[in-house]
Amino acid sequence: MNLEIDSISLDYGAGRGLDAVGFTVAPGEFVALVGPSGAGKTTLLRIIGGLARASAGHVRRDGVDLGSLPARRRNIGFVFQDYALFPHLSVAGNVAFGLKVRPRRLRPSRAERRARVAELLALVQVAELAEARPATLSGGQSQRVALARALATDPSLLLLDEPFGALDPLVRRDIRVWLRALQQRLGLTTVMVTHDRQEAMEIADRVAVLRGGKLLQIDTPAVLEAAPADAFVMRFLGETLEFPGRVEAGVFTPVSSAIAPFAAPPGRAGEAVALIRPWQVRLSPAPDGAQIDETHPAGAFHRISLTLPGTGAAFEILSPAELPTPARGQRMRIELLTPRLFTPKGEPIR
Amino acid sequence: MSRVRDRADARDWLVMAAACAIVGVLLIAPLVLVFVQAFADGWRPALEALREPETLSAIRLTLFVAVIVVAVNSVFGTIAAWLLARFDFRFKAALLTLIELPVSISPVIGGLVWLLLFGAQGWFGPWCERHGIGLMFAWPGIVLATLFVTFPYVVRTALPLLEAQGPAQEEAAVLLGAGWWSLWARVILPGMRLALLSGVLLTTARALGEFGAVAVVSGHIPGLTNTMPLEIETLYNGYRSTAAFALSATLALMALAVIALRTLIRRAGSVRA
């Protein structure tokens, strides 16, 4: 199933809403919508689901405009942030809901419904909970039940609103891996909203970054990392170090002499800032380098705190744990391995 | 509950004794006295008094009015609560205040308003009279007055629950294909059933005992438009104190039964949750 978001706008007033957001989701693709709160990602999801109405633009499924189709006829699976299970129904009753409310001639028989519920609960690995009440479930279990309920009517599209938001961090990762595998197996076209950039980068085929109702960039995690559309995208998607400097005659020269200059795209000149992930640097001893303040082991890395000479700016880098750690007080020159250059306004210099 | 100290000291006992005394004097003693007075001359006179045609008529009228009022206010109260919880519109705050008006305003005023509208000298009174519609000094007037007084109870018990639940369950139901009817029958009403029952029972208790508003529009015709509270007053003013207290005891028992039922339902609800 192909989903096309065609320049969707919504005016909420006060700068909130959506501004001509458009992208397409290929059949079986997993797209994550990320952005700071107020970016409009949940609003967009609700418009796709039919829970909110856009003031302009179209949502098309396989080329057919969904605009005139009410939410109840769209057959879209939706998993809510707090699951929204029906507390007065058992788990089986919750999962069977979508089958039970069908018009009589389309409604499966009681035996068929029971079989379908058993099949779905087995699929989400909570078969033993069929008779349990939602209030007695853990967060992870509720999540699986909510997913089973959303899948019961064989939806052509799955929408997930912060599906991992209420889970504790240990369960989160497991469920994430499991959900991705399930989505792949069922070939479900999926759109997920999350505020967790790392989660989005790990689970999605493509990630759409929204800010203030505008789509800044949508691409694979690798491209987003390598070529962010602007400094905001780069900053939003991960821990970022920033070094100001100047581009002149094809060379970026940092303000601090402790940072090694590197080649910049030719034909551009002026103020610029180099952005980089804390692990994309290399240290080498130099008498005028940055001073090592502290080192701490951090998993596969060493977290190293440094202070730049002159400005006194302090920051942290991650150095692979297998490399020798510099001693405290030592001075190191910093080489930026894969810097991305932006103008002071945040536009990329390529 | 957190414990500040392990054992209660003298001051704690004093406070507890004071609380017990207040509850005893203000709540329990009057109730006990009603029953004591009713049976002061023994069982027989009390039961005899209850079997008089005018008393029976008062009981019938009260139950009849209560059934209509509870039915109407449950339906409209539920719908009103849902609309108020789910939609934002202009003057919503004003409307919320207005809904609480019957609780804060004297019921006599509630009765007088109906008299002003439909009484013989009222705005629509002459029109009603010409068309043979007798609202005042008849049961429809009593129903209207009681409706006004008891309207807030269902709304005010259902609204906080609906607001706390939020619309997500209803949205989930719609996305799963539920139509309007399924939505109400399978999600909204079951989800609020305990609060709804509680509000309905509160409405019942209030409808059974309403005096002020009903007194204005009833006309006090024994055997015809006297509800139980009005009949009690009539009996008492006629120096028939045994009969008055026997009917009072009956009314009190009905109210107690309703409140006991409400407590049971709430307990059942809290155990499940």
TrEMBL record, chain A:
One of its GO terms (molecular function) is ATP hydrolysis activity. Keywords: ATP-binding, Nucleotide-binding, Transport. This is Sulfate transport system ATP-binding protein. InterPro entries: AAA+_ATPase (IPR003593), ABC_SmlMolc_Importer (IPR050093), ABC_transporter-like_ATP-bd (IPR003439), ABC_transporter-like_CS (IPR017871), P-loop_NTPase (IPR027417). Gene3D superfamilies: P-loop containing nucleotide triphosphate hydrolases (3.40.50.300). It comes from the Bacteria. GO terms for biological process: quaternary ammonium group transport. Pfam families: ABC_tran (PF00005). SUPFAM superfamilies: P-loop containing nucleoside triphosphate hydrolases. Signal peptide: none annotated. Residues 3-237 form the ABC transporter domain.
Automatic annotation (TrEMBL), chain B:
The keyword Transmembrane helix applies. This is Sulfate transport system permease protein. It comes from Endobacter medicaginis. Pfam families: BPD_transp_1. It comes from the Bacteria. The complex is composed of two ATP-binding proteins (CysA), two transmembrane proteins (CysT and CysW) and a solute-binding protein (CysP). Keywords: Membrane, Sulfate transport, Transmembrane, Transmembrane helix, Transport. GO terms for molecular function: ABC-type sulfate transporter activity. One of its GO terms (cellular component) is plasma membrane. Part of the ABC transporter complex CysAWTP (TC 3.A.1.6.1) involved in sulfate/thiosulfate import. Probably responsible for the translocation of the substrate across the membrane. The chain crosses the membrane at residues 12-39, 59-83, 95-117, 137-155, 194-221, 241-265.
